[in-house]
Structures are given as C-alpha cells and as structure tokens.
Amino acid sequence: GAGGVGPAGRGGAEAVGRGGGGRGGRGRAGNLAGVQMRRYRFDETGEMLEYAVFVSSKVRKDTTRVPLVIALHGRGAQPANIIGLVRDAAERAGFIVAAPMGYNTRGWYGLQDPGRPRQEREYSEKDVMNVLGFMRAEFHIDDERIYVMGTSMGGAGALHLAAKYPKLWAAVGAGAPAIQRGAVDFSAIRHMPVFLAHGDRDGAVSVEVSRSIVGKMKELGMVYEYREIPGGGHPQAREIGEGTGGFTDAFMNRVVLPLTGDYAENDHVLGHEIVHVFQYDIAATASRNRRRFN
Predict the structure, then answer these.
(1) Distances (CA, A) of 261 to 77, 175, 196, 233
(2) Fewer CB near the terminus (10 Å): N or C of the chain?
(3) Within a 13 Å sphere around the CA of 109, how many CA atoms are in the beta-carbon half?
(4) To which H or E segment does residue 274 belong?
(5) Residue 102: partners with Cβ closer than 8 Å, 6 or more residues away
(6) Residues 237, 262: Cα–Cα separation, whole Å
(7) C-alpha angle 57/62/66, rounded to 5°?
(8) Strands 35-42 and 47-55, sheet pairing
(9) How many CB atoms lie within 10 A of CB 43?
(10) Peptide linkage before 235 cis (omega within 30 of 0)
(11) What pLDDT score does 203 carry?
(12) Which residues pair with 227 in a beta bridge?
C-alpha cells in the first residue's frame, strides 16, 4: 500500500487495484477517467475508508515540488464528486488532487455541528489529515503549494482546517460555505489568500454568509478574491450571460462564470476556475505573506 502516517492519526493506505491510465499512484479506477479510488484502514474504528486521487500525467515518480489540492465534498456527496470538478484543470496545471471521505458523507471535517456527535467530527478531520499524510509520503509534494478547497459543507470544512492549521496551506478556496458566524477565526489566516464564491440566490446557504466573511476579511486586510454570482443558486453561477464559458483573467484578477441552466455543468465550471485561481501566483503571494507574518 501507499503507507504513510497522517498528522492527526495513523493508518496505511491499501491498494484496491490499478487505474488512472498510467497517471501514477495506486488504486482502482473510478468512474471518471484518471480518478483512482483508494481505501485505508482507519485505526480509530478499524473501518476501511475510501478516498479519491487524481494525479496529473505531468507528474512523474521523479517530479519534485508537486502542488497538491485537498478537495472536500459537500454534505451527502462522495469524494469522486468534488474531484471530478477540478480534474481537467488539475491535469493541465500539473496538480495532484486528493479528496477524502471525511469519515462519512456528513462529518463536517471537524467543524462544530450540534447535529453530529463530537467523536464523528473528530474522525472526519482525522481522515482528511491522514489522506494528506499519504500524499506527502507517496509524492514529492511542494510544502509551499498545498491548497485546501471545498463546496458547501466542504467549503466550511476548508475554512475550518485552514484556520486550524494555518502554516500548512498556501491558500484556501470555498464555494457557498455552509458555516455559522464566528465558527472560524479568520485572524489565524490573515496571511493566507482566500478564494470565495457564492450565488446571490442560493436557497441552501444564504449569500449573507459569504458577505459576512468578506466583511471580516476586509477588516483584517486579507488578500482575497470574492465572486458573488448574480442569479446563482447552490452552486449555479453567472457572470456575463448564457453561452459564455468560464475563464480566469489573471491580469484583472477575476473569474467569469456562465449560467447554463444545468446544475452539474455550472458546478464543473466553478470547480475548474477555483483551481486556476490557485494557479495564478497565489503560491508566490502566500509565500511572501507567510514570511511577513511569521
């Protein structure tokens, strides 16, 4: 197996076949091309937990300083769902993307949730950190280019983990984060670039959640990019009208997203652009800011 020791808990990754079209790594192929489904024994309970991995074809065994994205799925979704959103962009950019289960599909990645047992939340966070440990043990990960992102519950989890382990991540991205006011100490990540996106007609997570976060980031003088998407739901997106594909403008530091009327397509575009936001000089900015505040 891939082995490795997670920072917040032990467990060895177990190969369950080979897939991914020779892209590297170990694990059976998922339903999406190049996405490997892996599992490992979670020592705290003895259960076998599944996670998904995508390794860009640009990454070889001898490749050094490989960027890594930890992608966190939304409530009720699966690891392959979130990894499918960013796969194509990660392939082009030469990223590795790993998506943990978070112990189960509603674990909240350690974030406080009165509706879930405390132990389950702790297990959810440990699972994320274990998978991160496996990736660092198997690949030559660039410690200055480890990112965390997620949507909805996963967006909340990404912000929580960014604040809890602020020296670990180069940047954090969150789409429609389902997070309560005051649940994350943003002063802990005042040095960290943040990408945040939210539709102003989101019926599941109010856009006021992200607006409140933006207010706090402004107050702290943080480096951030916020895209409030007119007419966007959870997580449908629109910037300049139908028929316009999404793109990231590195010079204007903005993301343009279309409204196609198709939930899955808009979800894909949002995930795709989040990865590009990471790509454009965020690593350099994070490195400079980290040295400034440390």
Answers:
(1) 21, 18, 21, 10
(2) C
(3) 36
(4) helix 263-279
(5) 72, 73, 108, 109, 124, 127, 128, 154, 157
(6) 10
(7) 60
(8) antiparallel
(9) 14
(10) yes
(11) 81
(12) 197
- What's the CA gap between 121 and 141, in Å, rounded? 27
3-state secondary structure of 136: helix
Q: How far apart are CA 202 and CA 188, in angstroms?
A: 28
Angle between the N-to-C axes of helices 282-293 and 263-279, in degrees from 0 to 180, rounded to the nearest 10? 60
CA angle at 279 for the pair 274 and 282, rounded to the nearest 5°: 95
Say how far residue 75 (Cα) sits from the centre of its chain: 14
pLDDT in tens, 156-169: 999 999 999 999 99
* CA-CA-CA-CA dihedral for 230, 214, 179, 89, to nearest 10: 60
CB atoms within 10 A of CB 252: 8
pLDDT at 213: 94
- Whether the CB-CB separation of 152 and 75 falls below 8 Å is answered with yes
Q: What are the structure tokens assigned to 189, written together? A: 């990540």
pLDDT digits 0-9 by tens, 175-233: 889 888 888 999 999 999 998 888 888 888 888 999 999 999 999 999 888 888 887 77
CA 86/CA 289 separation, integer angstroms: 26
Give the pLDDT band of residue 72 (cuts 50, 70, 90).
Answer: very high
- What phi and psi, each to the nearest 5 degrees, are found at residue 141? -75, 135
Q: Which residues in the chain belong to E strands, given as ranges?
A: 13-14, 28-29, 35-42, 47-55, 66-72, 96-100, 141-151, 171-175, 194-199, 224-229, 247-249, 254-256
The one-character DSSP state at 122 is H
